[in-house]
Structure prediction request, 491 residues.
Amino acid sequence: MKPSLARRTSAELRPDPSRVVARLFLPGEEPHVARSRVGAIADRVLALDEPTVIELAGRLVQDFEDRHVGYEKLLRRHASIVAAAHVSDQTPLSPARALVLGACFTAEYATEAAALCNPSAVPHPDQSGLEAGQLRVAVSLRAIGEGHISSIGFCAAVIGPGPCWTFQQRDAPVVAGEASLARWNNHQLRAVLADHGNFDELSNALLHALPEHFDLTDLEHALAQTPIDLLAPPSAPAKAELLRRIVSSAYQMEFGLDTTLSQRILLPSAVEERDGMEDARFTRFLGDDGIAEYRATYTAYDGYQIAPRLLLSSDLRHFRTHRLAGAAARNKGMALFPRPVSGRQLALCRSDGENISLAYSTDGYRWSRPQQLHAPQQPWEMLQVGNCGPPIETEHGWLVLTHGVGPMRTYSIGALLLDLDDPSRILGRLADPLLSPADGERDGYVPNVVYSCGGLLHDGRLWLPYGIDDSRIGVAWVPLDQLLGALAMDG
Prediction:
């Protein structure tokens, strides 16, 4: 194998176990546990004398307030959730007791206690305060915490002047956003139900009763108005619950104006992503209408199944996430083109688990049957191939970073060049990897892996942040003309 084309930098990002969030914790309701202990714990808190409560509340604020934004407000919120079911209206809670009660049902979660890996990079919304030749980039991160559950974190970096990449300091404390329900389009729900093979008279009746745009509240109203005969069959309760789960999976997440990008983290919020949000592939999408927004696909995992989902944001502060549908929306590793081609939105996918394919959509939610584009050919990609992020537009074609899995499950990064007007045509491909695990990059949580979810171009160079062994992040670069020359030669 030839030496790698890419040139590594000294920039590195490692996981930081001090980056924690505080989450609602209900003892006895963990997975595979059937008996809730919430009521008994609440009773014990109510039985404490007030001086003890005041002392305990003071220690909690002293020990934890600096680790979280709005710590006391969070504890009061968790206390109100528990009190609604377990504290009598005739038992008023003092401010201190409310904090103690809330703290008993709150736990810290270290968002990247296990690993930090698989970044993607896009231009940052804020380009102020830079020197000539510099670009500020927003980097998405796969943060892996307890139980191997992944979340989507962020940081910022500055490229330049010249071949220099600098990760900016990550601010703390980490902040989880405020979630709310997102609206659906009737046609989108119809497509998702078709994927599940769940069309029956109940589904049809509800789709006809729902408005063109709706949310979970509208679905519940439609269910309440459904003729009882359609709710009588034995399968109806399960179908209704499936509909609730699908519709509630679309949500919005908003972060405060006082948060920086590096403080924000997207934690699993929908049932279908409860065991992880993996490998976000971000691009800055420019529509035919001239409107630009950040778009990403990521892999949702519920402990049993995986599915690609869509993430949308105009500013990396407000996010919307939604289920995708169609034959291409299968398996891991879907990546969106940064603009429509010939009036259609395009995506790379690996719906068969082995080959890179191309799919199209008219609305960005419902995707066509994929057309195979690239299959394993070289020794370093014998097991399977996939993309390493959204295609990057150059004047010579779409530059596609790929990953190949070879013997000993070694992951390497390669590249393809696709025709600008007809991306189903491959103009060039690398015979040898752009980047392979080097000495010092072979040991980690998952050995022998280099992997990226997206690079970008700046000042004549391809910049490639990449995950190392599912443990930490490094950065490499290659002159674009050198890479394009190698692609043309090997094509």
Notes: The longest strand covers residues 135-144. The chain has a mean pLDDT of 93. The chain is about 20% helix and 35% strand.
